[in-house]
Every structure is written in C-alpha cells, then in structure tokens.
Design a protein that fits this description.
- The chain has helices at 17-34, 62-72, 90-103, 118-124, 132-150, 180-188, 203-213, 234-252, 262-268, 276-284, 306-323, and strands at 4-9, 38-41, 77-80, 83-84, 108-113, 173-176, 192-195, 222-230, 271-274, 294-298.
- It is an alpha/beta fold.
- It has an 8-stranded parallel β-barrel with strand order 1-2-3-5-6-7-8-10, surrounded by 7 helices.
- The protein starts with a strand and ends in a 26-residue tail after the last helix.
Length: 349
C-alpha cells in the first residue's frame, strides 16, 4: 500500500529538556536525509511538580521548535500534532503559523485540537467551559476564526488582516479526532485527521468514519501514530517498555480498553515492539493501518538515550517501512553517513 512516512515525538523523553530538544532536532534532520516525508511534534504545557508518575516534560512552544527545524531542513514537511485551540488565541496561532509557513517555504501542516486539561487552563489563566457542548461550540468558533484569519479575512470587524499572508494554509489544517463523530465532522470540513494512541474508540472506527464522510474528490489525510520499539526479542523490548507503557496506560485508563497484563496495555496504546520483522508484521495486522495516509512513527518509548533512537530510525527506513510497502521518494543528495551501529544483545532502540 502507499503511505507517507512521518516521524513523531511528544518531547517527553527522560533527561534534561534542553538536551532532548537538541537531540530531537538532530534526529529529525537525519529523518529527512533518510527519506521521511514529514515531522510532527506534540504540544504539552507544564509539568506537575513532584509527580514522578508522569513523563518529565514536553514541548510548550511547537512553533519555535519547528522554526529551528525549518532552518536545518529543506524538504521535510513540518506539523504540529497538535495545538490545543481552547488554550490559545486563534489569531496568534494564525500569525505563528503564517510566519513558520513563510520561513519554511510552504512546508507547514497545522494540527489543532479541542484539548486542554482544567489544571493546564487554570495555570494559563484561561477559563474552559464546563459543559461539553459549550466547549465544542467554543472550539468551533475558534477554528472558524483561525481559518478566516489564514484566508486573509478582516479580523473582528476591523480592517486588520493577517501578515504575512498565508495563502493555502487553511487547506493544510488537521484536527485531532478521538471518536467516530469527530472523524466524520473533520472530514466534512475538508480537514485532515490526526489519530493518536489513546483513543476513546478504536482508531479504525474514527478513520473509517473520516473516509466515509469525506466530500467527493477531496484528498484523504489520515495521520495515525504508531509507537515502535526495536530490540532483539519481544521479551527484551517489553521489559524496556514497562515504565513508559505503565505510565501512559495509567494516564488514560478511564477511557482506554480494559487491560491487565503489560502486553495488553501496550496493545491498548498502539505500541509495536520486537525485531524489525516482528514490528512490520504487527503493524500490518493492526486494523487502522490500511486506513492511514500518513504513518507517524514515534521511537521514544522505552529508550534511555539518543543513540537508541537513531538506531530505531534507521531500522524504520531499512526494514520496517519497506516491509509495509513504503518506498522513499527522491531524498536529494546521496547519503554519506555511516550505517547505524548494530543493536547489542539486550540493548533496545
């Protein structure tokens, strides 16, 4: 099957956050050279003081990071996965998006969501509607304002319009979709959908609803995130994955499928692990996979250093993605970097 290959990160790797950011810039530059078509970053704000049960950090300023990445790359498309609109001023989002799109030569993809936790909103001084329907209505109001700003419409009844102009960027909006309904509504708006690893319904339900509701002639855009962990055996991989899988499942246990064993929890959050051949087989048998147009791979789970993630990216390009039918497009200059070092027994990537 045909799909675009993307790299994805939530920037919540353990360690010094400044070093994590620099390492991920380096990893994404490598991904472009190896043939990945896009890079997506997830946005997280703040951390909970003294709470060791959660990941240590995240990326609160995705536009800043992607601007740095734009300066280091020439072909890679750059995506936010996602900007939570209830926590942001949509006109400011439009301004940042327009500047980034201009600096990158039109390579930006704008992912947004109706997300935002109450504690985060309170820390920002933002009031979130308590009622679910009111929150949805406010999200749609902000989404409409964002689109009109990107399209150059006058803002709030004034004669002020977006600068720089962002021609075509409103056609590159993607929405986070967690349910059958949100998949359907995003398709009807002509947007792409981003489907994560902690869905309230199976990912294939959301993706199928999106495809079914897409207007005739519209190009489908379905990005699905897959967490990958490469090792010499499934047992070694699962042992390394335990802390991250347990943490993520604990965070989403109220809406994730019921799971008792570590294997069940890994499956519930879409983690594929083992040898490259086992990972390719696992993804190929995963129900949402045939519905994806963009395969977004994350290689951070279960890893402890940057070297492991570099090895995993090489494994994706050399073995995993080709095993699923992917072929690289023109990647420009021939690669001159040495091949990734071989995995050591018991060391995972």
């Amino acid at each position: 099957m045909s799909f675009r290959l993307a790299i994805h990160t939530d920037h919540r790797e353990h360690g010094d956050q400044a070093e994590v950011y620099r390492d991920n810039l380096e990893l994404f530059v490598l991904a472009e050279r190896l043939g990945f078509e896009s890079a997506w970053i997830r946005s997280y704000k703040f951390r909970t003081r003294g709470d060791a049960a959660h990941f240590p950090g995240g990326m609160p300023s995705p536009f800043v990071f992607l601007a740095a990445l734009a300066a280091r790359t020439s072909r890679l498309r750059l995506g936010t996965g996602v900007v939570p609109l209830p926590l942001e001023n949509p006109v400011r989002v439009a301004e940042d998006a327009a500047v980034l799109d201009a600096l990158s030569g039109g390579r930006f993809e704008l992912g947004v969501s109706n997300g935002g936790q109450p504690d985060t909103a309170h820390a920002l001084g933002v009031d979130l509607p308590a009622d679910r329907e009111e929150k949805k209505a406010e999200y749609l109001r902000r989404l409409t304002l964002l689109e009109s700003a990107l399209d150059g419409e006058p803002l709030h009844g004034t004669d002020q319009v977006l600068n720089p102009p962002a021609a075509g960027l409103s056609g590159r909006i993607w929405e986070s979709a967690l349910t059958e309904l949100t998949g359907t509504e995003s398709a009807r708006r002509g947007h792409g959908v981003l489907i994560g690893t902690t869905q309230t319904v199976p990912a294939e339900v959301t993706a199928a609803a999106y495809h079914a509701a897409l207007p005739v002639g519209a190009e489908p855009r379905v990005g699905i995130i897959f967490h990958l962990h490469v090792a010499h055996s499934r047992e070694a991989a699962l042992a390394a994955l335990r802390p991250d899988v347990e943490t993520t499942y604990r965070w989403g246990r109220e809406w994730l499928p019921r799971a008792e064993t570590l294997e069940e929890k890994a499956a519930a959050i879409n983690v594929h692990y083992g040898t490259p051949e086992q990972i390719a087989e696992s993804i190929a048998g995963f129900a949402p996979f045939p519905l994806a147009t963009d395969l977004q791979v994350s290689v951070a789970y279960g890893t402890t250093d940057h070297r492991q993630r570099v090895e995993a990216v090489h494994a994706v390009v050399d073995d995993i993605a080709p095993g699923l039918g992917w072929r690289p497009t023109d990647v420009g200059e021939p690669l001159v970097a040495a091949a990734a070092p071989a995995l050591e027994e018991g060391v995972v990537a």
